[in-house]
Amino acid sequence: xxxxxxxxxxxxxxxxxxxxxxxxxxxxxxxxxxxxxxxxxxxxxxxxxxxxxxxxxxxxxxxxxxxxxxxxxxxxxxxxxxxxxxxxxxxxxxxxxxxxxxxxxxxxxxxxxxxxxxxxxxxxxxxxxxxxxxxxxxxxxxxxxxxxxxxxxxxxxxxxxxxxxxxxxxxxxxxxxxxxxxxxxxxxxxxxxxxxxxxxxxxxxxxxxxxxxxxxxxxxxxxxxxxxxxxxxxxxxxxxxxxxxxxxxxxxxxxxxxxxxxxxxxxxxxxxxxxxxxxxxxxxxxxxxxxxxxxxxxxxxxxxxxxxxxxxxxxxxxxxx
Length: 321
Ligand SMILES: [Zn+2]
Description:
The protein is α+β, with helices and mostly antiparallel strands. The protein folds into 2 domains: 15-100 and 270-320, no CATH class; 110-253, Nucleotidyltransferase, domain 5 (2-Layer Sandwich), CATH 3.30.420. It has helices at residues 103-113, 118-125, 129-143, 195-202, 207-211, 222-231, 243-260, 307-316; strands at residues 15-22, 25-31, 37-39, 46-48, 51-53, 56-65, 68-74, 77-80, 87-89, 156-163, 171-177, 185-191, 215-218, 236-239, 300-302. It starts with 14 loop residues before the first strand and ends in a 5-residue tail after the last helix.
């Protein structure tokens, strides 16, 4: 048997402690350093973290690997407040509260939306269109406070409009760093698709950073070009509609068609840590199902199930979450 080594970039502090391949999915057991102090959500008291664990593991969706979904598996931990006895989940640094996917999965969803729509992206990823909408809303809500590192060297940008078909009133503008074309990264996102939205994105870059931009790719929208002409003084436009989308879609489609033909997996947004009483369970496997046919997001799996089963279940039955 051949062994293939792949590089995985991990958020700071996160380590991979195990791996399970299952069907068309990849499961990585991950760990992260627990905080030494915690603040109680209930009474506001801050104290040394008092950790408690449950007999579950949590499975959350991460980026695709070679067109196949990957999942992170970890043991969630509580903090027990020594003052009021309130128990709360410690949220890992790689995901937000009450979601079953990582922050970078959210970014992947945003990038895939360029030149596409929520139904199409949902189909590609095997999640629900509602979840795509929720992710965009979360990203927009975060965008105001998000800063671009002023030291980052940016020579090429893409600026695009996102539209969500189901709620045609929701448009967003997304700014992508295309300096390394193999690894486009979302820099900013703003509500709307007008010049103001484009400016809002571009103003996330420091002035010297904007001066360093050589090219920008925008679709035909005049509004975007107006903003770019004014704020990116030394850059020239490269008009290339769906430029980024093409790269992502080409890469994904080849794999995707094999894995997802005719299987529009639908996943319902499931609560992750912190929601008692409505914990997402993964049912046992119904007869005739195809593991990995539709990739969804994760849920909470009893620890008694081996990790491999957890991954297969999470990958195979998103529609039942
Ligand atoms: Zn408390």
